[in-house]
Structures are given as C-alpha cells and as structure tokens.
What we know:
Blueprint lengths: L2 H11 L2 E5 L1 H16 L5 E6 L6 H9 L3 E4 L2 H9 L7 E3 L6 H10 L2 E4 L3 H12 L5 E8 L12 E2 L3 H12 L3 E7 L7 H18 L5 E3 L10 H4 L9 H15 L8 E4 L3 H4 L3 E13 L2 E6 L3 H4 L10 E4 L6 E9 L8 E10 L4 E4 L6 H4 L10 E5 L2 E6 L4 H5 L5
Parallel strand pairs: 1-17, 2-3, 2-10, 3-4, 4-5, 5-6, 6-7, 6-8, 8-9, 9-10, 12-14
Antiparallel strand pairs: 1-11, 11-12, 11-16, 13-16, 14-15, 17-18
Amino acid sequence: MTGIQVRELTEKIGDAFYVLESIRFRQNFNELKSEFTRIYPNFNIAYSYKTNYIPKLCKIVDELGGFAEVVSDMEMEIALRIGVDPKKIIWNGPFKNEKKVEQLLVMGGTVNIDSAYEIDLLKEIARKHPDRRLNIGIRCNFDINDGIVSRFGFDIESEDFDKAFSLFSERSNLYLICMQCHFATRRLDTWKSRVKGMLALIDKLGVVPERIDLGGGLFGKMADSLKAQFDSEIPTYKQYAEAVAPVFAEHFKSAGNKPMLLIEPGSALAGDCMRFCAKVVNIKEVRGKAIATLLGSIYNINPTLNKKNPPIEVIPMGEEQKEYTDLDFGGFTCIESDYLYRHYDGKLAKGDVVVFGNVGSYSVVLKPPFILPNFPIIEISEGQVEIIKRGETFDDLFSTFAF
C-alpha cells in the first residue's frame, strides 16, 4: 500500500481499519485444492468459519464448491444466510444447540459428534424423524505423537467410542457419512500421523465412510520475518498434500468408490488475506525505553496472544521522523501486556500509520468489545473502496444492556 493510498483511506475511513484481500483468499483456496487433487482427485476443502467468518470469504468458498465447517449455530446461521446448501454444512465442536442440530440434520447437513452426551440426542432426533436419513460423523481422538492430549473427539479405545459407533446398527436412519479427526498441531509430521491413524482405524472397523476428514491445523503463507519466529518448518501447501494424499491414493487404489478426503483449513487460507492499519498517536520514552501508542490493540491483530511479531510497514504521514532502536508498539487499552509489536528498529513519527500484515486469522472473530468498538473492514477493488463491515458503534455494544 502506498503512502498516498493510506492517506486517502484515513481521510475517508478513519485512523484505524482493516483491509481485506479476497482475491488472495480465492487464490489460496484454489492452490491448496489443486495440490491435493492432482494426487487424490476426490478431495475437497471445508473452510473453518470460526477462523474468519466474513461473509464475502464464506461466499467464495461456496462459489468454489467447498464445504462450510461450523462449530456453532451462529456460524451455521451465517452459512444459511449466504445461501450455502445445508448438504454442504459440516458441524463440529464440543457444544451443540440441540434444536439447531436437529434442524441441520433434517435439512441434510452433517453433524460430527464429539462427546458421549450427543449419543442420546441423536437417538431422540432419529426417533422423531424415522423417514429421514440423518448424516452423522464421529470425531476420533488418538495419539499423533505431538505431546498433547487433545480434548476433541472420542478416544478410539474407549467405551464411549464403541457406543457412538454402534448407533448406526441400532438406528437405521442414522447414516455414518464421515470419520473425522482434528488436532491443532500444524507440523508436517503430525499430519502424517493423523492420516495413518485414521486409515488404521477404518481398517480395524471394517467400514469405509463416504468422507474421511483430517480436520484443520495447517500453516499458511507468511512473510519470512514471521516464519523465522517459529521453532519448526513452515510447510507449503504442496508439502502438506504430498504428506497426505499419496497415502490415500495408495490405500484406496483398488477401491471402486474412493472416499472423499476432506481437510478443514482456516488460517492456511485466511491468514495472509487481511492487513490492519493504525495511526501512531504518541511516542514517549520511559526510563530509556521508547514506546509508541497506536490506535489499535493486540486484540485487533492477534487475540490468541501468541507473542509473534507480524510483518509491518511504516507509512510516513506525520511529523518529522526520528530513528529508533528497540521501540515497542503499544495498544490503546489499559492492559500492561498490550503490545502489537516488540523491538522495532527504524524511523517513526507521531501521525505515521503502521500497516500490520498477516492478520486474517481470528482477528475479527475474537476481538472483544473492550475499551473501543472494533474498526471497519474495507476492500479496495479497481480503485473503489468497498465497505465489508462498518465500524462498530457504542450503540452496537450497549444495545443488549438494560440502562
């Protein structure tokens, strides 16, 4: 973004705003899908709405033939409002609204059950709708050697898993459409472990569902400065595909009806598709430490608080710049740890705008209504500014309170 662009945008939009790049999101989706389908053609993507549910991005997924992966009735409602066929909605997550689960199942969507409490719920729904095929998946939990005991899904060695699997012999209208797993670890070796674990489980059970879903947890594209802050390799889309798809292709090479391979990326698609622009409102020195305060917060760009510095660009717009060493960018909140970036070396002045890259993952959906309402989201297309989400107002935040 040029200084002229940013100056014009601050005059039109305000001193802090997000910039969406939906073209990049579309490119990411197509590239990731292409890398898998060239090896295993029966492949698709279920986009993780929870990562960034901006309707424009969700519409792109639907337009390109992907699934909507939701973890709440709120996200299910977003999918329905933008016109997603219920058959393309997959509901995961540890908590589910019983009435909405029933609604989605009756409409033909898929519900992947996560815990034993859902077993009785499914039995009751099946009893109420004996003439409907209800599409059910089971979330599976096993050791992928990442040193973490995941809280999601059924332990495949447990009695609860056996009870969940036996549902399909007890209720003829419950249909096992999917076996699914999800692990948060993004390392390439753990993806190899999850595909081997799922295929071993399917062989043990003697059943091949229509879909085998390996969940989310993939790294996306990022600047080299951000990659260097991780303690493991940042795989490419191609590397993920080559770790997983050939195993599927070999395992099902003789099968007449090959199951669909699904993955549920979020950050891998949306992470590099948004930037955040924030004006420098003050620069001060405290006991020899330079600190700049921005009209922005860590909760605007990194609400998971992972302590990594995003890629940044400083747009000169203010007073005469000075050279700084080890300057920290602080946020507008009253939280001591609210820093958007640590250890900046370079020129800066009050009134400059700092552009933070790679902020598309969780930034919009996890931002709390704390201190200030959230800022607008725009997209620039052919020189025109499109308002993707208007800035929030105090009335938006106060509307649910009784005054």
